[in-house]
Amino acid sequence: MADILPTSLLEACVVIGASNEKLKEVLQVHQHGRSDDFTLLDPEVLQVHVPPFVTKEDLLSGSQTLSNFNRTQRRRSFIKKKREKPVAALERNNGNNDPVTEDISVPKDIDLIGLPQLCFPGGLQVVNESKADHFHFLVFTDVFGNRTYGVVVQYYKPVQFPEDGSRYQNVHVHWNLAKAPRLYAAVGICVISKYAYYNALKDCLSCLLLQLKSCRGTDFEDRVKEFAANVALVPSPPPGQLHLVFNMKPLQIVLPSREDLDSPVVDLDLHLPFLCFKPKQVLQIMTCILTEQRIVLFSSDWALLTLIAESLVLFIHPLQWQHTFVPILSRQMLDFVMAPTSFLMGCHVNHFDEVAAETDDLILINIDNGSISSSSSRELDIPDVPLGAAECFMSRLKGVQMHYDLKLSRLGSSTELNDLRMQRRQWQQRLNWQIQQITLELIVNIFREVNDHLNYRVFNSEEFQKSREPADQPFYKKVLETHIFHSFLKARLNRKMDAFTRMELSTRSEAHRVKLMLESPRRPTMQEMALKYSSPENRCFKGISMPDLADQRIHDFPVRKSSLKKLESETALKIPLNPIKTFKLPDFPSPLVYHHVQSYYTECIVLLSKAVSCVPPESSALLARYYYLRGVMNMMLGKRLDALSDFQNLYKTDIGIFPADLVKKLVDSLAQEEWLQAEKRSELKRFISKVKKDNETGLVKSDDHVKNFALPKKHMQLEDFVKQIQESGIVKDIGTIHRLFDALTVGQQKQIDPETFKVFYTFWKETEAEAQDVHLPAEVIEHLDKNESVYKLSCSVKTNHGVGKIAMTQRRLFLLTEGRPGYIEITAFRDIEEVKMSSAAFLLLRIPSLKIKTTLRKEMFEANLKSECDLWLLMVKEMWAGKKMSDDHKDPQYMQQALTNVLLMDAVVGCLQSQKAIYAATKLAFFDKMKYEVPMMVPKTTSETLKHKINPSAGQTAPQAVDVLLYTPGHLNISEVGGGANPKLWCALSDGKVVVFDAASWSMQQNCIQVGTSKLNCMLGLEQNQVWIGSQDCTIYIINTVSMSCNKQLTDHRSEVTDMVIEDSNDKFSQIQAYSCSADGTIITWDVFTLKVKNQFHVECQRLTSLKLFRGTLWCCAGECIMELRKNGMPYRRMLLPDHPGGIAAAGFSCFQLFIERDQLWTASAECGELCIWHVKDLSKPFHRIQLQDCTGVSCMIKVKNQIWVGSRGKSQGKLRGKIYVVDIEKHSVEKELVAHSAAVQALCSVEDRYVLSGSSCEDGKVAIWKVE
Questions:
Q1: What pLDDT, on a 0 to 100 scale, did the predictor assign at position 168?
Q2: How far are the Cα atoms of 87, 282, 284, 321 from residue 295, in angstroms, in the given order?
Q3: How far from chain centre, in Å, is Cα 421?
Q4: Phi-psi domain of 145 (left: phi exceeds 0; alpha: psi -120 through 50; beta: other)
Q5: Cα Rg for the chain, rounded, in angstroms?
C-alpha cells in the first residue's frame, strides 16, 4: 500500500501558540496584579502533523490499538519541548542529547519559521475574557510559482498552572479556580493544502473546534492528530462535474471540483468584491492587476484580505497573475512593500498611513471603506477598461442577485443544518458561475481581436494598438507590456482550447466568422462605421441570422444589431451550469490503524465500482471521474496493476483529466513480478508502452516564444521575404507573395533591400489607417450593404457625373460627390462590360481618363483620373475578372483574392514611385491574366448544379487536401449556444487538422481541432455528441461535439484505421455497436457507450480499405477483392477483380456501393474510368459496365436518392481536373458530368439528400456544395 495519498487534501496540520515559559511569565505577572495590560507574545510552532499517519510498518510492529496509533505518531509529529532551541533547529540535526523535536519529515515547501507570524499576523494575545473564534486564509508561493494554501483558526484556551507545581503545558490544563485568575491565550491551528479549498477546510476546522472545546486538555494533541489523519485520507476530486462529499461530524463537507485541468478550484464566495466595491471600482482594480501594478489591500478583517485578493485574481482567468502574491503581511513583514517589482499584498488597515508613506507608486485598496488611492501625491492614474467591454460588464451585473437574504424570503425554514448549508451552497455555486461567466466575457471582449494580429509567432503590438479606439489605447499600451499578456499570447499561439477560446468561439458574430474565412484586408464595414458614430449602447452586437443555401448571395451573412441591455438575457446567462454529481466517501475509520485504513480504501473501491456499474451510457465524463478515483484508491492499496487498468480506462474515456505524471510514477514503481503479470495482459502492456512513449515525447519542449514584429535589417531572398510578409500579417498565401516579390524586384536583382520593404510596409499600413478614418455620411451608408468596406478612394476628379472621389468596395464603384457628400452608383463589378483608358481634351492638353461601360446604362462612365488612371485601370480590370470568376465558380474566395491583389498593386505603385511602377503592378494582375491565358468557362451543367464553395484552408499558407468530409445533423444538444446546435460540416485536412463549419450558414465554426499529426482516413458521427476520426497513426480520436475537444482515444488497432461504420438498431434497448477496420485486416466491434472492445477478428488480405454493413453482414473492400463476412468475422463470399476489356488487368478496387433492394453491387477502380455492376447473388463477373468519359480513376462514390455520385479525376478542356459523375441507378447512365475542382475529388458526403459536398486534393483544397435534383 502507498503511504501518502497522491492527491490528498492535507499537506500538514500545524498548531501555533505561545511558548509555555512565556505564558507562565504572563500568568505570574497577572497573578501578582502587577499589570492589567498584556503585551503581544511571539507565536511559535507547537505541533506539526504530516502524512503518512499509518504505514505498513505499524502492522508489522503490532501497532493495532488507538493508544498505539497515538504513540506511533510521535515520529510524524513535532511537539515543542524547550524554548531555548529555535524553530530553525528543525532543519538541522546537531546530535544534541536534548533535541528540540522528535523525528519528523516536514514537506519542503512549508516554511515553519515564517508560519507563526502569518497565523498570528496581528500578534498573539493573552486576554481576560475569551473571544470569538476567528478564521483567516493564507497563500504560500515557492520559487517556481507553485502555490500552497492554508486555513487558520484562532481560538482562545484558558491558561493556568497545574496544582502540583509541575512544568506548565499550554495544551494540558487543570483548573484550580480558588487560587488562579482566569486568563485566555490564543491558539492557532493551520491546515495546509495544495488546493484552495477555503470553505471546505474552514468547515473541517469548525468541526474540530467543536470537539476540542468539549474534550479534556490531555486529549488536545490526540484530537488534532486524529483530525489531521482523517483529512489526509480525503482525495481532491478530479476536474469535471463530480464533487466529493465526506462526513466530518456534525457537518457534511463538500469538495467542489475544478471545471477542467486549466481552471482553478473555486471554493470561496466570488461576490464578496462586489459587496465591498462598486462595479466601476472592480474594473479599476482588475485594470491594476492586468497592468501589473504594485497593489496593497487593507482591511481590519484578516479573512477578507485573502478572499478578496483571490477573487480578484480569479476574475482575470484564464490570464494568470505571475508575480508576488502575499494576501496577508504580518506587522513584521511590512517592509515587503518596498519591493521594486509588481506584487499583490495585503495588511491590516491600521498600517495604511505607514505603508502609504513608505514608498511611491503603490495602489492602495481599502476594503473596509471601498476606496482606491495611490501612495503618490498625484491623482490616481488608472487607464479605463475599453468602453465597449466595460459597458457590457456593467450591464450584465445589473441582472445578478448577490444577496442571499432576498432568496430566503420566499423559502420555508429548514430544521436540518445540512439542508440549510446545501441550499446556501447551491445558491453560491450558481452565483459564482454567473460571476465567472461575466468576468470571462469581459476578458474575451478586451482581448478578442488579439489573434487577428498574431502571425507565425509574431505579434504586431503596434498595429494592434492602432486598431483600438483612441480612448482605449492607454489601457492597451500598459497591458501589452506585461508578463500576464505575454503568457496569454503563448497560449493563443499554441491554439490552447481554454475558457477564453471556448467563449470567444461561442460568442463570435457571424460577420466575424465570415471575415476570418475570406481573409479580407482590415477595413471597417458599413455596419462598424455606423456603430462607431452611434450611441455607445449599440456598439456590441451578435450575428444570429443564417441564410439558406438557396440564397444566391450565400456569402453575405446578415448580422442583427443588439443593444447591450438585450445581451444580458440573450447571451451570457444562457450558458448553462453543468449538472453536478456528488460521490460520498465512507466514514473515516476508527481507530486509525493500518488494517482499518486499508478497509477504508477497500470500501471506497467497492462504492466506486458500484457507481461505475450504475453510470448511464451517455455519461462517459462521469465514468471517467470514477475511474480516476478508483485508480487512486487502488494505488493506496498497493494494487498497482488494478490502478493501471483503471487509468487505462480513464485514458480511453477522457484523456483530458489523465494524470500523466502520476501514472508514470506508478509504472516506474512496478515490481518485477508485476511487470511479468503486465506482460501477459496485452492491453495493459500496450498502455504502459504508450505512457512511456508519451513521456519521452513530452520531454521535447516546443518553441512557444512570441516575438514582436520588427522590420528586416538585411537584404532578403524569396524565402526570407515570404516569411517576413507572413509575419507582417499583410498576406499569407505563398503564391500571392511570390507574385509580390516579382513585382518589387522588376528590373533588378532578385532580392529586396530593407529600405524598399520598409517603404512598402509603411505605405500598406498608412493606407489601412486612412481607411479607418473614412467617415461616410448616413445618406451614403444606406446605399451600401452593411458588410461592405471602402478599400480605395481616388483623389477628387472630374467625371461626367460631376466632381467627386471614386470609391471602390468589394462589390462596386461609386462616386462620392463633393460639396454636400452624395452617392452616385457607377457600377457593380458583375455589371461591367468594358473598361478602357482614353483621354479627354483640356485646352491644349490630353488628360488620361478611365471609361467604364456597364450593362445597366447606355452611356459610359468617364473620369479624368490623370496620373492615377493607369493604376485604376489595372485595379478595376482585376476586380472585374475576380468577380466573374467568383460568380462562375460560386466561390467568394476569388473575389477576396482579387481584392488583395488590387491593394497590393496600390502599395507597389506607392512604394516604387517610378516609371516601372505600373509594369510592376501588372505582375499582381492574376485574374485579369488568367482570363486571357486560360479560358475559365464553367460548363452549364456544372454552373446550374453548383451552389457554393467554401475554403477549409482559410488562414493557411497554402491549400490543404480535404481527405474526409462528414455532415452531422443539428439538434445534437439543444442546450448548446452560439449556433452550436446547428448542423455541422467536418473537414479532415492534412496532418491531423479538423475544420468545422456551421452547415446552416457555411461559416467556419472551429478553424482547427488538432487530432494527432498524421493523415486522417475516415470519420463517423454518433448521436452521443461524438465524432469518431480514424487516423493513419492507428488511433481512433473521439471529439466531443459540445466542447469541440478531443478527450478520448481508442488505441486497439495496430495499423492505420481506414474505415468505420455504425450498426443501426431499431431496438432502443439494444446496445449500439460500431465497427472499425485497419489496413492490416483487423476489424474491431465497439460498444459505443462504454468504448469497450466487444469482438475483434482478422481478415486475410493485402490492404483493407473500406467497410460497410448491410442486413447483418459486413462487406469489406480489400483492394484485390471484396468480401462478405458474418458479423463474427466468418467469411461468407469473396469477389475478385473483373477482367478488364482488352485483356489488361484492372487496378484494385477503390470503393464500392451496395443496393440490396436491387440486388446490386457497384464497384470502381482508382486506375480506370469505369463502374462495374454485379448481381449480389452472382459475384463471378459484372453484368454491366458504365464507362465514365475522360475519367482516369475513381476515388469515392456515394448513393443519393436514386443516383450514384462518383468522385474522380479526369480531363476537362485538355487539363486534369477533379470531376464528379452523377449516374442514374435505374438507367445505368451518366446524367451529369460536373467539373468544379482543379484537382482530384477525394471525398464526398451527402447532406440529407438535399446537397452533396465534394472535397479535393491539396492543389485545390476547396469544398464544393452541389444541389441534388
A1: 43
A2: 32, 14, 12, 12
A3: 33
A4: left
A5: 37
